[in-house]
Amino acid sequence: MADGPVAELLLLRLQNNHDRLDSLELATALGVEHQAVVGAVKSLQALGEVIKAELHSSKYWELTAEGKEIVEEGSHEARVFWSIPPEGLAQSELMKLASGKVGFSKAMSNKWIRVDKTAPGGPRIFRTVETVEDTVKEKLQLAHQGKADSLDEKEKNELKKRKLLAEVTLKTYWVSKGSAFSTNITKQETDLTPEMIASGAWRDMKFKAYNFAALGVMPECGHLHPLMKVRTQFRQIFLEMGFTEMPTNNFIESSFWNFDALFQPQQHPARDQHDTFFLQDPAEATDFPMDYLERVKQTHAQGGYGSQGYKYNWKIEEARKNLLRTHTTAVSARMLYRLAQQEQFSPAKYFSIDRVFRNETLDATHLAEFHQIEGVVADYGLTLGDLMGVLKEFFTKLGITQLRFKPAYNPYTEPSMEVFSYHQGLKKWVEVGNSGVFRPEMLLPMGLPEGVSVIAWGLSLERPTMIKYGINNIRELVGHKVKLQMVYDSPLCRLDS
């Protein structure tokens, strides 16, 4: 039966020749809360045309708790008046009475009492009339007896202003039989389950109608994603420092730009399928600047530009393989090559913030993608000192001031440095990025002039977020509703778990 015994009793009363029921009268007759009857009406309405329910609203005046007290004991001003003896009462004593403060003000306004400030021992209160009529009590008694309509609007509003009387809106239902009226109602199903479909039982069941016009609960407020907040801060910092944002909308790269152009040998472990997502369709890239490709091949296989190279048989088949980029340094390589094609070299500063992908085993600290941040500066005579100075300025603007640098190895930077910051939550130094000076074997084949140096650094968006927000570990970052995209052992984005 729908919604318990109240609904059953309502249906039974309608069946016994009742043309219409008032929900408030029914609640009184059954000795239950009116809201229980309203709930039963709404439950029966959801079953279809079992009943008809017409909503009616009416207003009435109701005494507040303070108003009921006045009906019993009199108004505050009357109580103050009758508490004053013929010889008067010290004001300090009057104010100790329960009705003293409010009653004194109202009695003074009615000119029932006066204050003698020159009396010995301090101000003293005296009556100014022999007797008073407690009209406030009388008006509230009328409202209590259901005769509030006998009061004019000004009187009711005055009592309402004093919070002695309240206007209440009462909503009731007039309930009558519907076209499908029955006292034997079966609860309608709300879910279609696989078991119902498998057994065919759904054919004999009645399902509750779906309300396609119903609106979901609106969220109380919105929140900026912590990663997106930090990303916006990074971008603003780069722009303030005069950097130009690189186009990073190509998630798919060829192995040539992702590895070979960076002087990373074709036998490097990072180029294995266990670390990289290779594409099947299209499996290979075909469009390369062939003169530049030949110089890269020569540098890998036989050396050049003061380097002996790697001394192996470089294969263009490996360079053609398409993949999901493993770092945004592939974009930096493209931008530096474009810079080298200018008739006259001009210094440049580039940055990028975008997704990269790794074929990782998923766990609490690693996903198959993360956001990499990269900064590149190209100019004549740049040194490791310039790199350290730029890094200090960059991280200081982010709010990370405790930095340490540690020598490291990367295939395409020499010298190289890992960057550490002190984590207040973990109470230890945490790696936040990697950096270095691009090798001549990478830059000179592009056509950049002798003497031009390129300093670069990279980090993951997720790790500085942890540092900035004082988050202790990855699971706590999940608790901040941050989608984690972390990975480890990237030449420019190393993230040890």
From TrEMBL:
The gene is FARSA. Keywords: Aminoacyl-tRNA synthetase, ATP-binding, Cytoplasm, Ligase, Magnesium, Metal-binding, Nucleotide-binding, Protein biosynthesis. Belongs to the class-II aminoacyl-tRNA synthetase family. Phe-tRNA synthetase alpha subunit type 2 subfamily. The keyword Aminoacyl-tRNA synthetase applies. Residues 229-491 form the Aminoacyl-transfer RNA synthetases class-II family profile domain. The lineage of its organism: Eukaryota, Metazoa, Chordata, Craniata, Vertebrata. This is Phenylalanine--tRNA ligase alpha subunit. It comes from Ornithorhynchus anatinus. InterPro entries: aa-tRNA-synth_II, aa-tRNA-synth_II/BPL/LPL, Phe-tRNA-synth_IIc_asu, Phenylalanyl-tRNA_Synthase, PheRS_DBD1, PheRS_DBD2, PheRS_DBD3, WH_DNA-bd_sf. Its EC number is 6.1.1.20.
